[in-house]
């Protein structure tokens, strides 16, 4: 799981790199910026999809999906939520500002890497329904809230601000944390409800961490404001457990089935129980394709997709995805359904696969570009 890897890597960074981060923050920022730029360039160009499978699956998502950035933000968050004087607080608080800057740089890279594809989908009206539109809007709000916090985390900027104004601005961090939680849920809830184990784990693990933080931070704030009142631990813990239970039920509930319109009685009477639909006839005149292998690119859900089309005797005989950065579940769907449909129709223009529309559009665009090259030779 990428989240577990990212949390482990963040823990190693904090534990072994604390002194280095404190003494050489500028170098750490430069390294984070280089990693962010590399992930953006790799995703936009499609090069990431051509890397070794294990590297593209386990290492790259820590940067392109923002997992490492969020893991570092969790350390920043919990440093102020744990009891005062605890070993965790003593370890993290001296570099809390530096960690937030490093995490913000990586988060900006994540936003740029995936934001280009999402923006193109939004402009083309191809977001995944109301849920996709909501996720896109929350992403924009999240970046808008994070950028002022990021800029004012630098010591030079902070020194030029009035302490009260800086502290007031930093309260926006709570809105950032809430939006980050909502961002993750919106991008994963559909997959979780559709049976995707990775998406379900993301919802539960990230949701659990955010709820735990909210409970701990709320308890600490109440104890500070009302020191003589009874300990609110039990009430907050019960509230947190209720929120997690609701989140788990929401994530694990199966997605509602789409309504199916009944066939008219005449259609039922004419249909034969054992009849098998015949394949659609090919067009009378197919474009003249030159033999050979041609490649094309298209924009999938997360970034560039590259496909290769093989032409023999003027006929499309093979279509292969050469590089892709979309989630594997969507890639599997379009390989199993879309490619056979394009081979049967001898065309890139076929119906998109339900539940993988953006990935379908990317593959059709890539195949269409390859066929244009074949027709132009």
> Helical content, roughly?
55-70%
**Share of residues in strands:** 5-15%
Mean pLDDT across residues:
82
Low-confidence runs of at least 5 consecutive residues: 257-280
Number of helices: 16
Radius of gyration: 25 Å
**SSE string:** HHHHHHHHHHHHHHEEEHH
Shape: elongated
Count of extended strands: 3
Q: What is the makeup of the main sheet? A: 3 strands, antiparallel
Between the first and last Cα atoms, what is the distance in angstroms? 46 Å
Which strand order does the major sheet show?
A: 1-2-3
- Overall number of structural domains: 2
Structural class: mainly alpha
Please describe what this structure looks like.
- By secondary structure, the chain is mainly alpha-helical.
- It has two domains: 2-252, no CATH class; 292-376, Sufe protein. Chain: A (Alpha-Beta Complex), CATH 3.90.1010.20.
- The chain has 16 helices and three strands.
- It has helices spanning 2-23, 25-45, 53-58, 61-64, 67-79, 87-92, 96-123, 129-151, 155-160, 163-170, 172-193, 197-225, 233-252, 265-270, 328-345, 357-376; strands at 292-299, 304-312, 315-323.
- A three-stranded antiparallel β-sheet has the order 1-2-3.
- The radius of gyration is 25 Å and the shape is elongated.
In short:
With 377 residues, the protein is mostly helical. 67% of the residues lie in helices and 7% in strands.
Q: What structural keywords apply?
A:
3 strands, Sufe protein. Chain: A, three-stranded antiparallel β-sheet, 377 residues, 2 domains, elongated, single chain, mainly alpha
